[in-house]
Amino acid sequence: MMMSMMRSCCSTINNGILCRSSPIKQASNIVSFPPLFCHPKAKRYWFIRSQHKSSMGDRETEGFQNPRYVVKKVLARPQHEGDGAIVRRSIGRGELRNLDPFLMLDEFSVSAPAGFPDHPHRGFETVTYMLEGAFTHQDFAGHKGTIRAGDLQWMTAGKGIIHSEMPAAPGENKGLQLWINLSSKDKMMEPKYQELQSQDVSKVERDGVTVRIIAGESFGVQSPVYTQTPTMYLDFTLSPGSQVQQRIPESWNAFVYIVDGEGVFGDPSAAAAASHHALVLSAGDGVEVWNRAARPLRFVLIGGQPLKEPVVQYGPFVMNTQAQIQQAIEDYNYCKNGFEKGKHWASQQ
Questions:
Q1: 3-state class of 198 per DSSP?
Q2: How far is the C-alpha of 108 from the C-alpha of 168, rounded, in Å?
Q3: What whole-number distance in Å separates Cα of residue 325 and Cα of residue 319?
Q4: What is the pLDDT of residues 145-194, one digit of tens each?
Q5: CA angle at residue 73 from 71 to 75, to 5 degrees?
Q6: What residues have CB less than 8 Å from 323, skipping those under 6 apart?
Q7: What is the pTM for the complete model shown?
Q8: Residue 19 Cα distances to 12, 26, 39, 114, 235, angstroms
Q9: 127 φ, ψ (degrees, to nearest 5)
């Protein structure tokens, strides 16, 4: 996803107007910036609790030795981004600047002709997961495709991608976009894509709980998605009265984003949290969730191995030092070192 950014070698959006002049200015005194854009290995992860015991494969467990609890709650409020798009940003806003290795999470809602025209990325991955409608992606290397409800695109920008993301269905097109940081050794890798159609996303259903395994493993089922930065990304739906436990590697940071409904997370005596909230979880080996409401609860549970490296961000460029950011701006402005194909490219809207 993107906001306005000017460049010299490729068209972009400046206050909703396509332009081809005025390069990105050189950044100065960069330490760490909030995102300018709106814009998933433990053993078996998933088991359902029934009364006092939970089944996990052929074993019984009483729960977690070190359960995770909610330590921070952030409401994702609507804001305008891109060209007329509306997003709800949780990670990446002032209250939650980042959560290593995660840089941003947006819940987007876009109706044509709004969208996210040509914009660059360097140094991280974007994960786009469609909830409703469809989005078409194009990039300067000739890749083009449309993802629909339940489909997934995992894009590793690496050293450089310029692309567009535009709605492809009538009405509102909704989804989640997650930004995952890359380690210093991977930031300048060649770009790559992984795309899964909805029917290819593994799913487990049991006792009122459905989980779609976007990345990582749940109930012994492993996603085929390779995560450059080790990550789990699980889409849970709990019917009324159901509950679930989910293991999370203890060394990982993790959070929940509630898509629809309301639920109790971590502590059975806690107040229910409602849709559009991100819940940062404490350290521990897993989390328990209860749906005590009269309608289904849908949430994503996302966890990742922290990189523990400096984060220096300037809009769509995320590197480790200010000098690397300055180099990224220069490379983009002059279409070099990964951005060569952008010199004569513009998406076909």
A1: helix
A2: 14
A3: 6
A4: 999 999 999 999 999 999 999 999 999 999 999 999 999 999 999 999 99
A5: 170
A6: none
A7: 0.85
A8: 6, 19, 21, 17, 39
A9: -120, 115
Closest CA to 116 of 84, 145, 151: 84
User: Considering only CA atoms, which of 331, 333, 309, 313 is closest in space to residue 30?
Assistant: 313
Q: How many CB atoms lie within 10 A of CB 342?
A: 25
Distance (Å, whole) CA 295 – CA 166: 32
List the structure tokens of 338.
Answer: 């990964």
Quick one: which of 299, 289, 284, 247 has its CA closest to 266?
289
Beta-carbon contacts of residue 266 (< 8 Å; ≥ 6 apart): 67, 68, 69, 70, 281, 282, 287, 288, 289
46-50 vs 243-247, strand pairing mode = antiparallel
The answer to whether the beta carbons of residues 6 and 24 sit under 8 Å apart is yes
- Report how far residue 322's alpha carbon sits from residue 188's, in angstroms, rounded to the nearest whole number: 15
pLDDT of amino acid 46 = 36
333 contacts: CB under 8 Å, gap ≥ 6: 7, 8, 9, 23, 24
* 3-state SS, residue 310: coil
| Closest-CA residue to 166 (of 117, 128, 129, 130) | 117
Listed residue (91, 97, 171, 72) closest to 131, CA to CA: 171
73-106: per-residue pLDDT in tens?
999 999 998 888 999 999 999 999 999 999 999 9
3-state secondary structure of 178: strand
DSSP H helices, the chain, are 322-333
Q: Hey, what amino acid is at 84?
A: G
